Amino acid sequence: LELAEFLEDHSKVEKVYYPGLSSSPYKSLADSLFKRKLYGGVLSFRVRGGQREALDVLVGELESKRITSIIGGRRVGKTTMMYQLVAHLIDREIEPKRIFYFPADDPAIKSLAGSIDDVIREYFSRILGQNPRKTMTYILIDEVHHAKDWEAWLKKYHDMGYPIKFIVSSSSATHLLKRSSDSLVGRISEI
Question: pTM of the prediction?
Answer without folding.
Answer: 0.71
